[in-house]
Write a structure and sequence with these properties.
Shape: globular
Helix content: over 70%
Distance between the termini: 37 Å
Structural class: mainly alpha
Largest sheet: none
Strand content: under 5%
Number of helices: 7
Number of strands: 0
Length: 110
């Protein structure tokens, strides 16, 4: 139920939702955390993007991959920040899947 509420907040809350989404991203519930990551990436808010990028520096590989995927399928700001973080080796290479690389290459062509 919480993950649905977080998704809904991300879809309707706009920039006002960033603070609550960052709070939700700190949840111990993986489904809430994943929903918050996707919602933050879609807002394109720099504060939310920074929270996501920082989270790729710790945690298990699966968590890092979920965050990288969220950024790759987020808005243009999220994708640009992810591309820059990858280029500067701030993202662990093993967290970047072929799908993410393809998504970013498609975005760069547009």
């Amino acid at each position: 139920v919480q993950s649905l509420a977080v998704r809904s907040l991300g879809e309707t809350g706009g920039q006002n939702a960033v603070g609550p989404l960052i709070t939700a991203f700190a949840s111990n519930d993986p489904s809430v955390r994943n929903a918050a990551a996707l919602s933050l990436a879609r807002t394109g808010n720099s504060r939310g993007i920074q929270q996501l990028l920082q989270a790729t520096q710790s945690g298990d590989l699966a968590s890092q991959q979920r965050i990288v995927n969220a950024l790759a399928y987020g808005d243009a700001n999220s994708q640009a920040a992810l591309s820059q973080a990858i280029a500067s080796n701030q993202i662990p290479a093993e967290a970047v899947s072929e799908d993410v690389a393809y998504q970013l290459s498609q975005q760069n062509e547009n």
